[in-house]
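Researcher: Quick one. two chains, 566 residues in total.
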Amino acid sequence: MELLVSETRFDSGSRWLLLHAVAVFVFLYLPIAVLILYSFNGEGVGGFPPHHLTLDWYRTLFADGPIWDSVLNSLQVALAAMVIALTFGVPAALALERAQFPGKALFRRLVLLPLILPGIITGLSLLMLFNVMGTKLSLMTIILGHGTALISVATTEVFAGLQKLDRAQEEASLDLGANYWQTFWRITVPNLKLPIIGAALLIFTLSMDEIAVSFFLIGRDNTLPLEIWGRLRRGITPEINAVSTIIFIFSLVAIVFWYRLRMRGEAGADVAAEIVQAVEGDAT
Amino acid sequence: MFSRAYKAAVTLPPLLWVTVFLLMPYLLMFCYSFWSVSASQAIVHSWNLDNYRQLLRVNIYWQTLLRSMWIAARVTTFSLLLGYPLAYFLSFYAGKKKDLLYQLVIIPLWVSYLVRAYAWKTILGSDGVLNTLLQYMHLTKHPLEFLLYSPFAVVLTLTHIYTPFAFLPIYAALEHIPRNLVEASHDLGATPGQTFWRVIFPLSIPGVVAGATFAFVLSLGDFLAPLLLGGPSGIMISNIVVSLFGAAYNWPLGAAISFCMLLLVVSLLVFSERLEKKWSFS
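Model:
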């Protein structure tokens, strides 16, 4: 119980709570641990205990052309989606905080909807739009899909940042003769640096992982999750464990990076909590 | 302090984009749901309610919808049973470890959905990790077949994926409870159990409602976990939609089902917002 040196009183139930917490953490991390462990398993996925620990699957992976093509595709999609989501998400947050216009409530709901809506609905409705417009499916349609769905992330993050922002600086800038454009780039954006970087990281990661929307908008070129999906249907090899392990490590690096950035900034934004709050609907 | 031009400049571009790429597609889905497919597989733009009638008449559609809701309800229940005590423990007993443990709950959220579903598949398969472990320990002779390709596998995997989603709002709600209320209850002679049920739990209900909404809505529309782990008995409503948009080629009927799902989700969101308002204390 040394783990729990806390100021809070202990009651008899706390031991059960501790056990429960340990069990939940085991449940949450067991698949990830298995995934990583079996990426080194010479005998393939499954089988207990693991035999012949080897790096062969990583060698296979590095020699696997289609996987790396799909990684490049995913990187392009994620970067482009990030640009779209920020380009429209940041102004959307400013609009929600500072402007009044007819249909504002509907606009807010609409922007946030893709966060909670099952991906299949967003994906299919966009598929119908592209079909009616005669747009050929390609990485471009996936980019439009991801960019649009993830505006919600940029908007929630920046909106939360705006609410903590002191408007006096912007006011001073305008009073001193800067125009709105200069004020936006020199005062507003630098002050929102942390939420914007946080949103960008999250958008990037979510787009790299996204499959439900991409599933319907895919053209000839695969993104990484769709490439993995295609292989899963054909049968499973530890190569998929290997690529998943590498993605996991990159995600961890992103989390640590983000965490340290937050620590350096003022009592910064908690991305996850803010998104939850926005979806709960008390953002305005 | 912001001029009309400024407001227009920040409002119009996102408004336009969202109208074209979110509002129009949803409306288009609504239109599609009244259309039909001709024998030559062309979309017929005739407006009628046939697709909706078919949904009510053909058993498999509404039965699958009910089964999906039942799966989602189980996922929601398990996510809350796992997430609530965890959130309570972190908020009230974890002391200085609180932030670290919080991050540990969040990290799995950053691991790809597909990868986690796949990991469960490798654990539950008939020559998977769990079955070979059980045989290795001589607990069973033959692999347990019900583990994979069953509703059980779908519920387990979705619970794994949505437990952090259920945890987050509950934790946020618990963190917002003024600690002096808890102390007052204790000082006035309430037992820990009474304090929990009469003070803490009622104040955390908005978080529970939000967490339940997340888990239910997101698992209701899932189609990848059922495809990967569900087998024939684990089919969910979105799988039917996927096949209607694919091999079965009946976009209008698929659009009708999707639109019903959209309505269901939006009404659940509105309902849960009402509930949260009703139970929130601030």
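The domain at 51-279 of chain B is CATH 1.10.3720.10 (MetI-like fold).
Researcher: Thanks, that's what I needed.
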